[in-house]
Amino acid sequence: EKKYEIEGYVPLLKWKKGRVPFDISRDVPPNMTKVILNAITCWNEDFGNCIEWVPRKKERDFVYFVKGSFCHSDIGRMKRMQLIVLNEANCNEKGFILHEMMHTVGFTHEHNRPDRDNYIKILFLNIPL
């Protein structure tokens, strides 16, 4: 397996051939399914020449969108079925779904970078206890 690193720290597996096979659980309500498909269309229009989301056929490694009590995705390809968990009340917007999709392809939060302390100074006295 080819691996790559994000910010020189987190080893991740790439999605094969730059394609992310996906499926959507039947438990996901129709209105949320529509938003997911809209997010995927927007992604593919903007980034599809680099990383494209495609409907799953029989791939062993794929992303499965599910309804849950929170919003979550692992960072990078995890092998086998990888969940993107979406809460209908809090994550039923294109931006939130794109955020989780970015985690799935390997993006992490800026504040989690191992070199963040080179760029920011935390003023602990300003943090209420």
Automatic annotation (TrEMBL):
Pfam families documented for this protein: Astacin
UniProt entry tagged with the keyword Metal-binding: yes
Active site: E100
One example of a Gene Ontology biological process annotation: proteolysis
Keywords: Hydrolase, Metal-binding, Metalloprotease, Protease, Zinc
Cofactors that this protein relies on: Zn(2+)
Residue ranges constituting the Peptidase M12A domain according to the UniProt record: 7-129
Listed PROSITE patterns: ASTACIN (PS51864)
Residues that bind Zn(2+): H99, H103, H109
EC assignment: 3.4.24.-
GO molecular function: metalloendopeptidase activity; zinc ion binding
Enzyme class, UniProt record, top EC level: hydrolase
UniProt entry tagged with the keyword Glycosyltransferase: no
Domain of life: Eukaryota
Free-text comment on the cofactor: Binds 1 zinc ion per subunit.
Assembly behavior: Monomer.
Function summary: Zinc metalloprotease. Provoques deadhesion of endothelial cells from cell cultures, and also degradation of fibronectin, fibrinogen and gelatin in vitro. Its role in the venom is not fully understood but it might act as a spreading factor that facilitates diffusion of other venom toxins. Alternatively, it might be involved in the proteolytic processing of other venom toxins or it might play a role in extra-oral digestion of prey.
Protein name: Metalloendopeptidase
Organism: Nephila pilipes
Underlying gene: nas-7
